[in-house]
Amino acid sequence: MNWKNLSIATLFAALSLGALSAQARDMSQPETYRYGTHLDIKKVIASKEGTTPACGVVTSQLTYLDSMDQTRVLNYQSFSGGCHDN
Fold first, then answer.
1. Of 75, 80, 34, 42, nearest to 58 (Cα)?
2. Which of 5, 7, 63, 73 could disulfide-link 45, Cβ–Cβ 3.0 to 4.6 Å?
3. Taking 90 as the threshold, does the pLDDT of residue 72 lie above it?
4. How far is it, in rounded angstroms, from Cα 79 to Cα 86?
5. In whole angstroms, how far apart are CA 9 and each of 2, 19, 75?
6. Within the chain, how many helices (H) and strands (E) appear?
7. Who contacts 52 (Cβ-Cβ below 8 Å, separation ≥6)?
8. CATH of range 3-79; options 2.60.40.3210, 1.10.10.60, 3.40.190.100, 2.30.140.50
C-alpha cells in the first residue's frame, strides 16, 4: 500500500467518524416544542407518552425523520392517560 492510498483511506475514516459523532449528538439532545415551532416531519419513528397516575400535563416524546432523513427527537407537553371523563 502506498502513501497516497493510505492517506485517502485515513481521510475517509476521519470523515465517517465525524458524521457518526454528529448524528449521535443530534439524537442525544431533543428539541422542546414551543408554539409556532416549524416541524419538518417526513416519517414518525416512535412516540412515547409521558405517564402519571393522576390527571395532568406530562412531557411526551416524538422521534421522527425530517425531509433530509435526519433522525430528530421532539419533547412536547400532553395530557396524561390518567385523565378520564366521568
1. 80
2. 63
3. yes
4. 16
5. 11, 16, 39
6. 1, 4
7. 58, 80, 82
8. 2.30.140.50
Q: Is the pLDDT of residue 40 over 70?
A: yes
Cα dist. 74→37, 47, 57, 60 in Å?
11, 10, 16, 8
CA end-to-end span of the chain: 76
What are the grid coordinates assigned to 78, written together?
A: 400532553
| The pLDDT of residue 2 | 74
CB 50 within 8 A of CB 79: no
